[in-house]
Amino acid sequence: MLLTAVTLAGCAGGRDAAEQANQIVYIDGETQSTIVADVTDDLPAVHPQTGRRTLMPGLYCNSCDTWHSSPPIEVLQRNPAARQCPACRSPLTNTGPIANSQ
Ligand SMILES: [Zn+2]
Fold it and tell me: Which residue of 62, 71, 95, 99 has the lowest C-beta tally within 10 Å?
């Protein structure tokens, strides 16, 4: 019984991982909450619940354990320092835990 459950969970996990390959974490500019949505170059991205363009890609700080809203791509290209955590100056990454999505 237990074995069956574990096997099923394993299969589902694999499928989820594949589906998430085309999704990233965004920060909602209105609520500052994190949300996972499809990757798009058309920014700000459309919030799936409100239908409004309020989502900017999230950058993750490992030190603060926090997602920060990414500056516009032009700013990132002009100023590499924009890719640092505003709180602790650690380099931000595009990936991080998707937990606590609201
Ligand atoms: Zn930080």
Answer: 99
CB 20 within 8 A of CB 36: yes
* Length of the chain (residues): 102
Q: What is the pTM of this model?
A: 0.71
Query: What gap in Å lies between CA 12 and CA 1, rounded to an integer?
Result: 17
Q: How far is the CA of 83 from the centre of ligand 1 (A)?
A: 11
Residues with CB under 5 A from ligand 1 (ion): 61, 63-64, 85, 87-88, 90
Q: How many other β-carbons are positioned within 10 Å of the β-carbon of residue 60?
A: 20
